[in-house]
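Re: Re: ligand-bound prediction request (bumping)

Still looking for help on this. To restate: I need the protein modeled with calcium ion bound, output as structure tokens. Inputs repeated here so nobody has to scroll up.
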Amino acid sequence: MIEFLVDLIQKAGSICKVEQSRLLPSDVNFKGRKDLVTTVDKKIENFIIEKIKTKYPGHDILGEETGRSSFSSDYVWIIDPIDGTTSFLHQQPFYSTSIAVQHQGKTICGAVFAPRLDELFYADQDSGAFLNGGLIRVSAAEALINSVMATGFACLRADAKPNNLSYFNKIVPLLRDIRRFGSAAVDLCYVACGKLDGFWEMNLNSYDVAAGAFIVEKAGGKVCDFNGDVYFPENGIISANPSLINQLLEHFK
Ligand code: IPD
Ligand code: CA
Ligand code: CA
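Reply:
Sorry for the wait, this slipped through. Here it is.
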């Protein structure tokens, strides 16, 4: 299954890269005041779904743009065709395609591909986590002051209260630095490969994080909700290496 997944996500990413270069204003629609979707999001999701249905006709599918296909299989494919649509629309490189496969509710493989960054992250239940074929591990940072972390502001897009700004203002002064790249899936994969030491965000959905969270865990990292429990992303999501996860969690409880 991982071979099919890796091949499929690379094909999807290649289409994204071409389509980004010829995006038109007429390709953009609004799901909310600041929540964008393009014709390419839908095109990529339909492409992915068609390939999955051909290869695994009995499996369920959950796509960000098309929803849940059925509830009839032990297997479900969780798809974010473009994670970071705002970056994609603004001709920036920090976007990705994210696909995870769950069996009886447990993720068994996942892949995140950022075509403009040429970074392909994946992990299988029987293997470690990889970036472009090389094994990856989380960072060894042991103190917040020596760490660079990422976050995002889906909460502001959703006009949610409370939102991330209070956590941001409290935590950022404790860090070496902060990044807001624009794709939660890439943020999580950057934790997995040690380019980030931690990540947190509110108001995300399963399709934003399913693959990235699995890749982090297979790379020796930790993922939890804002209470230190497993109910992410609905109760927020925090990810870091094992040395930092509790230091970070303290600022959310
Ligand atoms: C978004 C990205 C972004 C995060 C937003 C997500 P989308 O995904 O992951 O980094 O901050 O909350 O919604 O909407 O572009 O698929
Ligand atoms: Ca997303
Ligand atoms: Ca998306």
